[in-house]
Design goal:
Layout lengths: L6 H12 L5 H9 L3 H28 L3 H25 L8
Length: about 100
């Protein structure tokens, strides 16, 4: 089965492929404009969203009795939850003793 992209979508994809890549200087400038705590918070929220999406996919797999895929997704959910916890802990402000 072949799929065809709408002309507008195909054009958008071509433009993205042809766009110049960022230079290391551009990336460094972008990275220095973000506070580390903000970056950790954004990553944490992204991981929370990913966990929710993975749980939805897991439910679909269970509805269709796709046990193999559901098992893989369970592993990914566990990993994502651990990452979320780590990012939360890394973003907390401790006292002067490091706690």
């Amino acid at each position: 089965m072949t799929t065809t992209l709408a002309p507008k979508r195909a054009q958008d994809l071509r433009q993205r492929r042809e766009a110049p890549l960022s230079t290391p200087t551009d990336l460094k400038a972008a990275a220095t404009s973000v506070e580390p705590s903000d970056m950790l918070a954004e990553l944490r929220e992204d991981n929370k969203t990913l966990t929710g999406n993975l749980r939805e996919a897991h439910n679909v797999c269970e509805e269709h009795r796709d046990i193999a895929t559901a098992s893989l997704i369970e592993i990914w959910v566990d990993e994502t939850e651990r990452r979320t916890w780590f990012l939360f802990e890394a973003g907390r402000h401790g006292d002067s003793s490091g706690r």
